[in-house]
């Protein structure tokens, strides 16, 4: 681990340069793995990551400052300080549905906190995995610690679940339908918080289905399979 946050900031800056230098390579890899449209690549992966890195650089000096909490009668005469120490080594295992963003955002957070990171891209998104392997080793400092596994302490899992949408009978059905379908169709629905089902009255259901058919045709044409504006399921096993 490193308590030198100048080093951490240098790594975050290197990640920003990596994105600027290889933005098109990332788009191409995402297109190969998910056939994701360029605009979607930018919104949900590349610009998302870029903005997160800039936010870290803007705030890191404040985040790592020691805190002086309010004192109570018990420690009134003491000098009470909270220091934020790194855990040591973090293991980040990427996910295939957002193979760049969900890998590098937690990597950046771990580095910003002063940790060293073991990075494991998703083997399912093969093109992105190969690209990340090449770029991370090129742009970030490789520091290997002996017996690093001794310090892999807490585990954090990012899991998806059922995400219902409720449509009230007074809702603007045109606006509501577009918002729900956008959330469902981005990345071909392969998002942990994508809308999963809808709660509404039978009357609202009829209105929603009619509007949904119109919107989907407007977005993707008569045959969505031929549309360049919709991502694809990562592989047959995920589809079935």
Describe the overall structure.
It holds the Pfam family Aldedh. Keywords: Oxidoreductase. With 240 residues, the chain is mostly helical. The chain folds into 2 domains: 5-139, Aldehyde Dehydrogenase, Chain A, domain 1 (3-Layer(aba) Sandwich); 164-238, Aldehyde Dehydrogenase, Chain A, domain 2 (3-Layer(aba) Sandwich), CATH 3.40.309. Helices cover 49% and strands 7% of the residues. The protein has helices spanning 5-34, 38-63, 101-112, 126-139, 173-185, 202-220, 236-239, and strands at residues 89-93, 116-120, 164-166, 197-199. The strands form 2 sheets. A two-stranded parallel sheet has the order 1-2. Helix 1 (5-34) runs antiparallel to helix 2 (38-63), helix 1 runs antiparallel to helix 4 and helix 5 crosses helix 6. The two termini are 43 Å apart.
Question: Can you summarize this structure?
Answer:
With 240 residues, the chain is mainly alpha-helical.
